[in-house]
Amino acid sequence: MELATQIAISGILMGVIFALIALGLTLIFGVMNIVNFAHGEFLMIGMYSAFLTSTFLSIEPLLSLPIVAVVGFLLGIMSYYLLIRYLLRGPMLAQLFGTFGLMLFLRYLVMFIMGPSPVAIQEGILIGKTVSLSWFTFDMSKLIAAGFSILLFVLIYWMIERTKLGRALRATSIEADAARYMGIDTEKMNALAWGIGGATVAIAGGLLANFYYLTPTVGMLFVMIAFATVALGGFGSVRGAFLAGIIIGVIEMVAGQYLSQIKLSFVYLTYFLVVVFRPRGLFGW
Amino acid sequence: MFSLGDLPLSERIVFVAFLAFVFLFPWIVRSSYPRAVMINFLLFAMYGLGWNLIGGYGGQVDLGQAKNVGFGAYTTALMMTWLDVPFWFTVPVGMFFATLESFAVAYPMFRLRGHYFAIATLCVALVWQQLFLFWDWTGGARGVELPIKPIPNFTYMQFGAIGSHYFIFGLFMAQFLFMNWFRKSKLGYELQAVRDNEDAAASLGINVTWTKVKAYLITAAMGALGGSFYAVYHSYIDPRSIMHIDLTILIAMTAMVGGCGSMWGPIIGAALLIPLDMYLAALLGGRGFYGVDFMIYGFIIMIVAAFEPRGIWGTIERARRRS
Amino acid sequence: MNQGVSGAQLRGQEGEVELMLLAVKNLYKEFGGLIANADISVDLDQGEIVGLIGPNGAGKTTLFNCIAGYYKPSSGMVLFQGVDITGWPAHRVAKIGIARTFQNLRIMPLLTVEENVMVGAFCRAGDRQIALREAREILELVDLAQEAHVHPTELPIVSQKRIELARALATKPKFLMLDEVAAGLNPFETKEIIQSLQKIKEEKDLTLFLTEHVMEFIMTISERVIVMAAGRKIAEGKPEQVAREDKVIRAYLGERYAEGR
Q: Distance of CA A180 to CAs A165, A168, B187, C175, Å?
């Protein structure tokens, strides 16, 4: 019973973080119907940004988050203006390959610069600290990361539902042509979606860096989790991403407990089953 | 049936020249590294032609081809080490397993379109890679080693450099001839019709899903063939090399960069990318500069995808049509 | 429910419904609450040319899609030569002898003209040589033999429509449905298509079922016209008769014009 609760809570905590990772992906998909294969690399770059910033400026990793967010935002916007914009004109095959190429490029660029060996953040308030509450023990960093994720989710949700900008984004995602007729600059909206998507996933990376090791290839792992999450939640749905993230987090934790070597297979299988049997996911269109 | 008669004379001439060059290559070039590059090129041209069936003529982006290659490689390796049977015996068995597995996943997967389909193929391949890493009876992460026999050995298909060259050349030619037949066959046309417009294809009596499945199965079998060759050529396989997504990327790239949906595309793509990869690796001191080759690939893919999705051959064709 | 004058009645063959080439009985098609086709019954006899008209949103294309197998009817029946084909998938419907063209051209751009038609021919032929021969024959019929090796995207729209026709014909249908084949054509091109169609119909002994917005076209070529509005059949009969019916005018132009007459 206690073990079950521990697993469940750990799963939920990680799940909230998965949800944050998936948020950017679902936003981008919602606005322009393109799947960003390089999403995991944005995460990875977020992680490395946190690592480099906190190490070289000798500051608390959490304080590096604003910088990480800016890096992610710029990365997203640049990706849009330098590549995605052109891909959108082409056939879907090209779009798929295009973001795939971006993924390879970013991943191996970082590998070239940083080398393939894993690194980890050594110093920080959250590093290695655990919190005990009666019979649970969990990483402080995971708890705080989950907390931040929820905060960010609420922020993004509020922005999309309540602000003018959010409405413009939603308009572009529903019907880009109509949005254009109403004076919305859809190019800017697209770029913004990429910027916000990049920023959120980079922040997720920055949070992850507090308790996860960094390698240039870590993106591959998380992007598959993100795909499964987005598929389950429904492509384009913010609420869906949140709920699905938690579900996936629990699945991964449970699988990790009993079949840890192939626990990822369960995540992949989840994606497969969801898209085959319920393509709309929980909340998607 | 195997004629290239419908293609322009210029293309035929170039191809024959190319064939002659490849055929005479081991006698022209004597050093081992270029020979290895040539063999690898032929292997990837072969892989690319196979992937091109579902990816180019079918228009379905399959990111899981590595699992098919892996099935072929593992079947050959395991059968030869456990049962000591000749290579050619293991090939149809490998193709069978690859086809069987593909059939099992094909119907659910082909309900999906576009990105969803691509990701699903990726998922399936990743699951298999995980399983093969996990399973002890297939060697797990240690992989499978084939015994080294005195060459030439026709049971184990182990040869010196020249023998290996003609071996893969033979396989490549077989693959090429098959693809040439395929593109003009009923299934070939139906597949292209499905690629270009599914609803219209259905209105012409084509069972869209079944056509895609058939194409997928054939591609799987061809991937397995390549895998079987890989196993005996390298005498060692493991899940990280043979079932890795990086392999799929390379395969899909050669087809895509060279030009999907044409016979020459994968050959051109492989001719460009394989020497690039292997010479870059050699230049940068045997992988001292980690991953620069993939970085360059990523860049090439982005450029091609953004500006010339039809690949190099597509550019050539377009230029030809303008004149 | 006003059934109008059916094909059987026009020919004085009442009671012989079983011999109908195509019979649609009480077809309903609903899309999550929106009723696109309500209680549609239609009979088509061998060798007829029947037109289907109605204002936008009347449900004409839905009816086509239900017959051709792109939608599954919510209820009702579709019978072809006595065989119940209700809910059959599109490729089976094609194989049994019903062909169709599409409103927005669905040409295969990466294949040549000849190859496009060959795809249709492969419906009946297994061999490439036979398919090629048949494709060439049909291209002759629609005057496209010269352009056999060209890519369709390089030809004008009217030629592309002829390619689509040729392709559908290559499947050797008995029944051909044409979805707004004259859309986007100028009067000269429309005449071209009419001529092609008449030639085809005679050579191949086809039954044609057309839907159209271009009135001169459909009223000229049809022997009988069915009118739909808001998902229902509201009139049926000879073109001249139907054009004068109040409810038809009302459906197209609204109350004022109907009363004005």
A: 14, 10, 43, 44
Region of poorest pLDDT, from A175-184, B97-106, C29-38? A175-184
Poorest-pLDDT segment among A226-235, B16-25, C6-15, C163-172: C6-15
Q: Cβ of B207 and C91 within 8 Å?
A: yes
* Contact predicate A230/A22, CB 8 Å: yes
Contact with chain A for residue B115, Cβ under 8 A: yes
Say if residue C118's pLDDT is above 70. Answer: yes
Mutate to test the interface with B, among C119, C174, C178 (most CBs of B within 10 A): C119
Task: Specify the fold of A2-277.
Answer: ABC transporter involved in vitamin B12 uptake, BtuC (1.10.3470)
- Chain B contact set for C127 (CB, 8 A): 186
pTM of the model: 0.87
User: Is C120 in CB contact (< 8 Å) with chain B?
Assistant: yes
Of the candidates B245, B278, B250, the residue with the CA atom closest to the CA atom of residue B266: B250
pLDDT 10s digits, A32-43: 888 888 999 999
Across the interface, which of B118, B120, B131 has its CB nearest the CB of A96?
A: B118
User: Which chains does chain A touch, 3 or more C-beta pairs < 8 A?
Assistant: B
ipTM: 0.84
Distance CA(A220)–CA(A58), nearest Å, equals 29
The Cα–Cα gap between A143 and A136 comes to 12
Are the Cβ atoms of C111 and B192 closer than 8 angstroms?
Answer: yes
Pairing status of strand C175-179 against strand C98-100: parallel
Q: For chain A, which residues make up each domain, given as ranges?
A: 2-277
In terms of residues, how long is chain B?
A: 323
- Secondary-structure class of domain C46-58+88-260 per CATH: alpha beta
Q: How confident is the model at residue C80 (pLDDT cuts 50, 70, 90)?
A: very high
| C123 reaches B (C-beta below 8 A) | yes
- The residues spanned by each domain of chain C are 46-58+88-260
Asked if C91 lies within 8 A of B185 by C-beta distance, the reply is: no
- B184 touches C at CB < 8 Å: yes
Q: Where residue C1 falls among pLDDT bands split at 50, 70, 90?
A: very low
Partners of residue A91 in chain B, C-beta under 8 Å: 309
Q: Mutation test of the interface with chain C: which of B189, B196, B203, choosing the one with the most C Cβ atoms within 10 A?
A: B203
Rounded distance between C-alpha atoms, residue A93 and residue B187, angstroms: 22
Give the C-alpha distances (Å, rounded to integers) separating A278 from A233, A254, B115, C260: 10, 23, 16, 54
Domains in chain B (CATH in brackets) are 9-322 (1.10.3470)
- Report whether C169 contacts C16 (CB < 8 A): no
| The pair of three-digit structure tokens given for residue A58, joined into one six-digit string | 């000798």
Q: Is the pLDDT of residue A242 over 80?
A: yes
Chain B: nearest CA to A223, how far in angstroms? 11
